[in-house]
Every structure is written in structure tokens, then in C-alpha cells.
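Figure 2 data, in text form.
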Amino acid sequence: MADAIEIRDLSAPELSVYNCRSEVQLLRYYEPQPGIFIAESPKVIIRALDAGYEPASLLAERKLLGKAEEFLAAESETSAENEPLRVKNSRMAEPAVLEEDQQQRMENSLVAASVAGEDESERIVSSDNEDQAALLHEILRRCGDVPVYTAGLDMLTQITGFKLTQGVLCAMRRQELPSMEEVCAGARRIAVLEDVTNQTNIGAVFRSAAALGFDAVLLTGDCCDPLYRRSIRVSMGTVFQIPWTYIDDGEPGECADCENDMEALQSRNQELDTKRKFSNVPDRINTGIPWQSDYVTRLQNMGFAAAAMALREDSVRIDDPRLLAEEKIAVILGNEGSGLRDSTIRACDHTIRIPMAHGVDSLNVAAAGAVAFWQLGRRDF
């Protein structure tokens, strides 16, 4: 690894990617080329490296980095040939293998956090610091000579604007997104997100889709970017493990780039929904934002049965045998406040609902997605 660089000037240009307060600045960092995203926590960074993303730099807490360097030094001393441990190409590096007891302690802490209803990406137990250092050790090996910046936790908080709960951030270069058809090739179960604008919901949907047997995720141009920091963190890095793209040939719409526009988009669609109840207002459509209104037809032409999750009189239960019999199915989830567009629902082969008790009418989009993915996902994993 390169020598760690102690941070002394918070305004140093090389730290700009970490003290950016706007995700859009990172998205446009190398425009017109793909920009940068920030991966947070060792486990998430490793998953991004596994997916072939190229690291640009690392920002690590001094104590954690020191412990990771101890691992490197010990490994170097025991190396029979005393060869350097650095690798310049992360995709050529072999991942380090954790000792069995270290891996077990990590799994136990994640299970405990899950049972307690906590987001394990927000939680780090002091007894697991050694495990985090072991993972950082692997990251340092695989990142080769990329710059590694370090400071105490208080200074890192000043730089980033938030407390690093797991001690390390990695600035990584984005990749060109594939087309919708490329993502769908060979897939049998696909999740489609239409105008979903909450970063937490995006991350949670990705995690459920990856865990419960779905093959890919598609997003309309108005969806929040899955590579925003919070979306990545909530997904626990599964955004790097499951194929995804924007429906408009791999390009997000304008609103996907601008966090401040999300509430405006949702508010506008809700207003149009209300007006449509009392007049002949056309189905909501976001003029000026790239969006293929025929994406349902495109999916159907690729052999997918399109299933809209919506509360309608003709909705069928999610355990309807006709759904389970579909060879290829695309489950379409809508905006947190407005749901799916009427035109989308009309174009679908099925409209499905989750049976509810106690008078509850619906679930949060991330929770509804998890139920649908479990019921309709593949069972061959």
C-alpha cells in the first residue's frame, strides 16, 4: 500500500470528494465521463471491489488504519519469499481469508443487530474492531497504491459532515451502465422501481431483491440514484452484487440527479392524482425528463409478465397460482406517495396486492417489495 497521508488541512483539494455535501457534485465529477461515488464501511467497499469498481482514494480513521497496518506487517514478516503485498489492479488481487473465529464473530454481530431491528451498517461494536481492521487490511492489499488519507475520528467528522461508524470511506469511479436489454438478458425475476425517490427505500429494495432470488433491478429516470451514499449503505453493498440500470438506456433522468427535486416531484404527482379524481387530467408524466413510457411493453416483448403492485378492484392476491406459474415476471413498485402511474397499471398483465390484517391498507414500498420478492422469487439458490 501507499504510505498513509496524515490530514492537516481540511480544505486540501484532494479531500474535496469527501467533503462534498452534494451527491450531484460527485455524480458529475468527471463529466461527461461517469463520476464518483463514496462507499462506506469495509464490507461495502470489498463488495464494490469484487464487482470491479476502481478505487480512487481511501479515507480511514487513524486507529483502524494502524491496526490494519499491523496485519500487513505481520503477513509480510511471515511471507516465505518476502514479496510485496501490494497489487496495482484490484481485480487481480486475491481476497484475504479471515480466520474462522473472526468470521463467526462478525456474523454473530450482524445477526444480533438484525434481531434488534438495527441497521448493522450504522453499528460497530468495540469488540469487533479487530474484525473491521482485518477487512481494511484486505482492502489495502487490493487497492494497491491509491492514496490513503487518515486522521482522528473528530477530524474525519469535520471533513465528511457525519460520524464514520465503521472507520473507512472509499472514493470509487462509476462505471458505464448497461442497457435495459442487457440487464434483462437471462433473467427470470426482475424488480422495477417507478419514481421511487427515497434513498433508504432504494437501498432496502436492492438488498431484498438480491437476498430473495431476484435477478436484476430496473429504475425509471425519476428514481433516486442507487449509488448515493445512503442507498449504498442501506443496501449493505448489494447494489454491487445485482445487475441494475435505468430504463432509459442506462441514463438517469434529471430528478435522479438532484436531491432537492425529489420532494417537488412527489408533491407534483400527488397533486395531479388528486385533480384526476375530479376532472379529465391526463395521466401524470414528467415532461422534460427522459422516460420510456412503453417500458412495460419492452419487458413483455422480452417475455416478462408485468405485475403491478397496486390496490385496485381487479387486484389479485400475491399468492395467486397464476403468478407463480409465470416463467418470467417483472414486479413493478411505485412512488412512495403516489404509487404507480395509471398508464403503467393498465399496461401490465397482472395487478397484485398483499393481503392485510387489522385494516392496514398498504406497506412501505421497501417492505412490500420484500414480501413480493419472497413470494415470487426464485427458489433455486
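Caption note: The chain has a mean pLDDT of 78.
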